[in-house]
Amino acid sequence: MHPEKKISPAFEPYLADSRRRDKHEAVVIYQAPPARRPQRGREGLRVAETRVQYAAEQAVLHKEVESRIFSSYMDEGDEALMMSPIGGSALPAITVEVTQRTLLTLAKQPDVIAIMPNQKIHLIKPEAVSYDELARNEMRSGHTWGLEQLGISKVWEKSRGAGVNVAVLDTGVFGDHPALAGRIADFVVMDPLGRRISATPMFDAGAHGTHVCGTIAGGQTPEGVHIGVAPEAKLLVAGVLVGDATIRTLLEGLDWAIEKGADIVNMSLGFNYYEPMFTEVFDVLLGQYGVLPVIAVGNEAQGNSSSPGNAYNALGVGAVEKLGRTRTDVAFFSSGASLVFPGQEPHALVNKPDVVAPGVQVFSTIPPVLRAGGAYFYSYMDGTSMATPHVAGLAALLMAAFPNTPASAIMEVIKETAQHPGGSERRPDNRWGYGMVQPAEAMQALAS
Q: Among 1-5, 33-37, 182-186, 343-347, which range has the highest average pLDDT?
């Protein structure tokens, strides 16, 4: 690959006002040989040596490559620039100081495959938050409308997500919430410098992460209403949106999740600039570790999309709302776009979202909020961030029922069994994607 093609186009606005010798932090993705070839399938990797052991062995090889890259970079440059590893080096990624003068020098290193600016990231904030009481129909059915719409109770006859780890990279989690009792396997906070901070008790810097966790794996409300899609799945929660978060903060969280044995990663965040090279990170997650990335596409309405949810190899999720008693439609705020990348076959045309799920008036857990009526431990929220955990929970149900099925196959069956109101000939488009996810049909397709 030509060195200039390794440099992200996001550098152009990032460096627009800088001088030639001004230093900037870049994220470098590099190539490294696998420690040992994992067996096919998600469970195959676990049986061979466990994902955690594999990540540790891979980190040894990664550190050798990191040392080689930096030595060559320093030998060819004439400035005192710094390099920092990311986490335990489970991911083939590092941060390196660059200037306009040294960026191309770094790109010429043969092990380097992509260089991105360490740009800021942000939460995809809910469109609305309300503290209304549970709707009568949800009280009557014993499930939130999202679970009822997806027919989750029928799927629970075959799977409740046991044995599957879902990493939630978000604002944190209120670990003492009764509906999340026994469901949080581990918790960490990543600060802006990339340091891992253990915190007791577990906390949420907002309410978003707790709400997402409840939709993925929460139990029941005091009224007996089920809120979680995969109530027996375990949650690995990383607070990556605490303070001045960047791509490096996110990669620290992903590295931690891999080390902890995550099967699925749920993210409801976006980058300030479009970043096409983040696909390299998802390639590692899917191809090397068998981890499924489930990402919100954003709340900027049609004609827009948000990185990294618009990456071709991420499972990007949009939101639907309930209209009347039986009708559903894509929410007005749910992002969607058709992205064209000439010369990048077979991914020259990418439609996002990939699928949609309930994302309006989603009832779930929050840290306690004191209001005039008392303390609230639950709320309704709207957003693609609320739709995404429905899909992450569905993936957990499928992985638990079919542990030898690769993550890439789980992604494909979720898309292929989704239902588009315009029929299969309309799939995928940039509103519905492949359509509304259908848990029972996905389960049946994997069984056949």
A: 182-186
| Banded pLDDT at 194 (limits 50, 70, 90) | confident
Question: Domain map of the chain by residue range?
Answer: 3-118, 122-447
Beta bridge pairs of residue 382:
128
Residue among 89, 143, 170, 204 flagged as catalytic: 170
> What string of DSSP letters covers 292-307?
EEEEE--SS-BTB--T
What mean pLDDT is predicted for residues 112-125? 95
Is the domain spanning 122-447 CATH 3.40.50.200? The answer is yes
Examine the residue annotation and report whether 208 is marked as an active-site residue of this protein: yes
pLDDT of residue 145: 96
**263 among known catalytic residues:** no
| CATH architecture of the domain with range 3-118 | 2-Layer Sandwich (3.30)
- Please indicate whether residue 385 is annotated as part of the active site: yes
Task: Give the β-pairing of 355-358 and 24-30.
Answer: unpaired
Write out pLDDT tens, residues 285-327: 999 999 999 999 999 988 888 899 999 999 999 999 998 777 8
Whether the CB-CB separation of 364 and 153 falls below 8 Å is answered with no
Q: Annotated catalytic residue: which of 62, 208, 211, 390?
A: 208
Other CB atoms closer than 10 Å to residue 283's CB: what's the count? 14
Catalytic residue among 268, 306, 335, 385: 385
Tell me the three state secondary structure of residue 204: strand
Helix axes 208-217, 384-401, angle to 10 degrees: 30
DSSP per position, 241-275: SSSS-BHHHHHHHHHHHHHTT-SEEEE-EEESS--
Within 10 Å of residue 204's Cβ, how many Cβ atoms?
24
Strand-pair category, 234-239 with 165-170 = parallel
* Percentage of the residues of the chain whose pLDDT score is greater than 90: 74
* Alpha carbon separation from 96 to 24, 26, 74, 275 (Å, rounded): 8, 5, 11, 17
